[in-house]
Amino acid sequence: MITFNADTGKAQNAVAVARRRNLGVPAEIDQVAGMWQVAVDASHMKTPERPTVDDIPATAEELRTLIADRAHAHRVALAHNQVGTDFLEPIARRYNTLVRDHVDGWIRALQPDFLALIKVLAKQEKKLPANLDQQHIDLRNPAISAPWETASNAAVKLDQLVNDRQILARASGQDLGRDAELWAVAEITAPSSEDVFAHKLRDEVGPALREWRDLKATPIARWLYLSRSPHFTLQLATPGEVTQRQSTMERWQQAVAVVMGSGLSHQQAQHAVATALRG
Hints:
The chain is an all-alpha fold.
């Protein structure tokens, strides 16, 4: 088992997810894992155990030969220890690189299952009341309990899929920062200058983000909320897309900061907002 460092541990976890979800693990990755085991075995090769009374031969000449043989075995074991250890770090780096190279494709391969579950969720949320607080949902009513149960099953599977997606993404060393969990599954429409001056971030998008955060402890309602929200498009992100989605929100916030600033004419503010939105 590859356990060279934290990065390799993340890579190995990603391979386990890819294998479990039948995303396709290239033979080269398994070959490098096999090389790791060869290097580990070499680095742990043991020297011969100390001789006992029972190992003493009958003659001095036989002892001379035995000592020479055991000395050779010692040298071989110690050399294997050193050389095997020398190979561990480059093999680990090679393994990590191979896995990182496949993370994007593995995450893309999760997209069909993700979208299929989102489709189920979207169909069920139309049958449910506006208030998604479970305390206010009458589960005794079959017209409510049936879609709620179907939505619940979809939400559980979505959480499992997104958790696997995050394990894959960690092997690429990305997907950090504020609300990365949201941007991993949803994208927000790039704002226009009109959106900025209309205070859409303050009045609509900001409250939607806060609501999503508040629903963290209730995953069913959280998924249903995202499915209903006009501000988010549910689509699984590749690692690079998470950063892009974060950047969209950051540009919007920067543009709002321009509007909130003083001393600019309306025309100057329009130009500054357009510049901020372009990044």
